[in-house]
Amino acid sequence: MKQLSMEELNKITEAVIGAAIEVHRHLGPDLLESAYRECLRYELLQRGYEALQEVPLRLKYKDVNLDCGYRLDLLVNDAVIVEIKSVESLANIHEAQLLSYLKISGGKVGLLLNFNVKMLKHGGIKRLIN
């Protein structure tokens, strides 16, 4: 992952949040996570960002990189991890998942987005820092 300044990371997270709000405005709640992921990726690409989906995250163990089944929903500009949910409410386990991804990848900032809410900005967005 790229090591960017907090200013650069903030710019990316603001763009992701803006794109997520746009997607939620058009789709609303109650769809599958995969639908939101694909639409958010499209929206980010339209805004000039690189957005890779289902990125394998390998775990380094004793100088060996192992595929343990971790997949990042979205990786934006090789710097910000975006974990997408469509659940009744975000739980501690969701935050733990994203924090684990940040730790394993060496990333600094991640966004946890829950699209299954009335308004995304009311309880659907969490920004986590490693």
Quick synopsis:
The protein is an alpha+beta fold. The protein is 38% helix and 32% strand.
Number of H- or I-type helical stretches? 3
Q: Order of strands across the widest beta sheet?
A: 1-2-3-4-5
CATH topology: Trna Endonuclease, Chain: A, domain 1
Helix content: 25-40%
Descriptive report:
The chain has 130 residues and is of the alpha+beta class. The chain has one domain (6-129): Trna Endonuclease, Chain: A, domain 1 (3-Layer(aba) Sandwich). The chain has 3 helices and 5 strands, in the order H-H-E-E-E-H-E-E. The chain has helices spanning 6-27, 33-46, 92-105; strands at residues 51-61, 64-76, 80-85, 109-114, 125-129. It has a 5-stranded mixed sheet, with helices on both faces. Strand 3 (80-85), helix 3 and strand 4 (109-114) form a beta-alpha-beta unit. Helix 1 packs across helix 2. The longest helix has 22 residues, at 6-27. It is globular. The mean pLDDT is 96.
What does the secondary structure layout of this molecule look like, with pairings?
Elements: H1 6-27, H2 33-46, E1 51-61, E2 64-76, E3 80-85, H3 92-105, E4 109-114, E5 125-129
Parallel strand pairs: 3-4
Antiparallel strand pairs: 1-2, 2-3, 4-5
Helix pairs in contact: 1-2
